[in-house]
Amino acid sequence: MPIFRLIRSALLALLMLAAPAAHAQLTPTASSSAAAPSDPYGRETPRSSVAGLIQALAGRDYERAAHFMSVRMDNPRLTNGAEELARRLQVLLDKGGTLRAFGALSNQPVGDLTDDLPFNREQVGTMKVGEDKVPVMLASSQQGQVVVWRVAPETLQILAKADVPREAPAASTSPDNWMIGGAPVSDWAMLLGLAAVSFAVFRLLAALVLLVVRKVIPRCQDSAVYRFLAAALPPLSLFLSIMIFFMWANRLPVAIVARQTLLRYGGTVALVALVWFALRLIDAIAELATRRLHHYQRRQVISVVNLLRRGAKLLLLAFTVVGVLDTFGINVTTGIAALGIGGIALALGAQKTVENLVGSVTVIADQPVQVGDFCKVGDVSGTVEDVGIRSTRIRTNDRTLVTIPNGDFAARQIENFATRDRFLFNPVIGIAYGLTVAKVREAVDIVTQALRDHDGVLNDGIRATFTNFADTALTIEVWSYLAGPDYNKAMLARQDVLLTIMEKFEAAGIALAQPTRSVMVQGGIPLPTSEDVPVN
Predict the structure, then answer these.
(1) DSSP at 69
(2) I want to staple 111 with a disulfide (CB 3.0 to 4.6 A). Which of 122, 129, 186, 432 is the partner?
(3) What is the arrangement of strands in the sheet containing 391-396, beginning at the earlier edge strand?
(4) pTM to 2 decimals?
(5) How many helices (H) and strands (E) does the chain have?
(6) CA–CA distances in Å: residue 447 to residues 278, 352, 428, 439
């Protein structure tokens, strides 16, 4: 169906980038290697050949454009004929002809070997001759030590027989024919207006859809459908407007230079829209998953979701950069091979980064802590807020945020307070000297019974023992556990047990110890204490 062919062509155009200046004339000194031969007109691949031809036509430089025709340039008569053929090609392309999107053109010296054409032929577009549309073909041939791509002889024969006005396109004093970048101002305005109108229409439709969904769904923020639409519609409206622009731009009788230039920029915008859509979709899915994990108390999976979200974003951006570099003609395969050759230096330079990445995987897999856990890492105590790709962030009790690299975090001793199932209750209770042995035994029994009667104290391992004659008190050591893992409930249970012990001590006439000091008196005169000695 036409719509599917349109979408396929548009997707092939997503990697179009750069203004025509990016494909300026190549010279031997600009080649990647001084020893490697190169073509002075940059005709080594179908993509570079089309880019160079469009640049020559934009400047009405038909003498240069003639070098992109498959004719012998050592004969002046043939050279003049080639210039006329280049002019005819421009006129026919301006009147309804099309060229394939820059990103869809082969950037290999051998061309696209997957089509059904001979190995030395490449179709790069179509032109309208009369009522028929005929293909614009390139042919490869050997020139010196390099293989170059030029407009094929069969296409030149069609150009020679076509009924084309003999006057060359030229600017006039009319504002409609003022030239900018090799194309009339009216053509630029028509194409830019089409792009602006299509984007405005789709953006308005997206806003109306979101408005209707907000009216229909009461709690739209918690709705997966609304969150998906809110994330997808803005970039999709931009992408769809570019698709409409692709479809209609080739149907408008405007200059091929303006069309190809804006289609390149349109391909860049479409690529940005798709990346934008993917990033927003990743965020929406991750946020929705995090909400549900919080609801079901699956905190251990939240860190995995965050790590996957960031990893997916990094991979997406990396592939985007690779695609952009490829559209600039940079050999990505060679670059990756160069990275392999310099792998040792890269590993040494990125040692800490790799260490932190491995540390993050270790933290996620081993799960010593989870988001929301209160822990102690080294001398830092606080609540884990985020486990990222490079570092883990901890909110301290002073409300400061401490960032610890994951490589260091995984190597430290980590104490996780959130995972304990009970709290140690181990106070030392001091009772006053002067009590009888019976009262001391009664005090021990009171403490033991208070522990056994309280619901917040675990019954296994309860122990209350008279342990020592201290300097100021007779001490009873308590050993038991409070039910966990809620810290606040455990502290309330601790308070309740201590108050119960105090209440029963008061009822039994058992006084808690107070700090005391005995002063020896000699001859009726008290000896001075430390408080009585003046301080100089």
Answers:
(1) B
(2) 122
(3) 401-405, 391-396, 380-387, 374-377, 414-416
(4) 0.51
(5) 15, 17
(6) 64, 56, 11, 12
